Amino acid sequence: MIIEILIMLFFILGVGNQNDGVLVLGATNIPWVLDSAIRRRFEKRIYIPLPEGNARTYMFKLNLGDTPHSLTDEDFRLLGQQTDGYSGADISIVVRDALMQPVRKVQTATHFKYVSGPSRENPNIILEDLLTPCSPGEPGAFELTWEQVPGDKLYEPVVSMRDMLRSLADSRPSVNDEDMDKLRKFTEDFGQEG
Predict the structure, then answer these.
(1) Handedness of CA 34, 36, 40, 41 (dihedral sign)
(2) pTM of the model
(3) Dihedral, CA atoms, 133, 139, 140, 146, nearest 10 degrees?
(4) For residues 88, 93, 98 and 102, what is the CA-based torsion angle, rounded to 10 degrees?
(5) Which of the 8 DSSP states describes residue 43?
(6) CB 32 within 8 A of CB 182
(7) The Spastin/Vps4 C-terminal domain covers which part of the protein (predicted)?
(8) In 21-42, which positions are buried (b, 16+ CB within 10 angstroms) versus exposed (e)?
(9) C-alpha dist (Å) from residue 142 to 49, 79, 97, 112, 136
(10) Where are the domains of the chain?
(11) Dihedral (CA of 74, 77, 81, 87) sign
(12) Which residues contact 95 (CB under 8 A, 6 or more apart)?
């Protein structure tokens, strides 16, 4: 789990007879709502900033995992650059939505075409009669709905950069400038940079 924004640590020493060396870790995105009594009990208050470009690039790769896709390293770098101000959770939401884009393509398709691809039962066998969604003007396109495609003949499109960009266009970062200003002020007053 990626802990963002703020991590507070403290050791409880000498509480009871058996609790020496207990580590208590707390995290919050809204530290300014903590009262002073709670803040005093945390020895360290460490601000962890939102991920930078390289970290966001890696998060896109990590969240996509081994899902079939057509993204290049350059595509991932571009996604990392275009998501300034996004948290790890925000990036996870964008990727989850992008993973649904191929399903939406299949469900909304009015035309399909034949393609080659691996068999579902045995990926080492290549079938020539799989069906994938396409636009009506594509060569080999014929009118068909996804409900008419036999399940074992459906070749789902892979996740593409276009899918990622479409999902990104529909999302916004969950942390706004006002929250960032409050976090900077809290760090100046009570914390330290991570």
Answers:
(1) negative
(2) 0.75
(3) 10
(4) 140
(5) S
(6) yes
(7) 131-191
(8) eeeeebeeeebeebeeeeeeeb
(9) 51, 34, 28, 6, 7
(10) 106-153
(11) positive
(12) 60, 63, 64, 164, 167
Q: Which residues, in sequence order, are bridge partners of residue 44?
A: 9
Average pLDDT of each block of 10 consecutive residues along the chain (194 residues)?
35 47 74 79 78 96 95 98 94 97 94 92 91 94 94 92 96 86 80 60
- In terms of residues, how long is the chain? 194
Looking up tokens 């940079």 gives 193
Residue in this structure with the two tokens 């929250």, named with its chain if needed: 179
Please, how many CA atoms are within 13 Å of residue 9, restricted to the half-sphere of its CB?
A: 10
Give yes or no for a contact between 148 and 111, defined as CB atoms under 8 angstroms apart: no
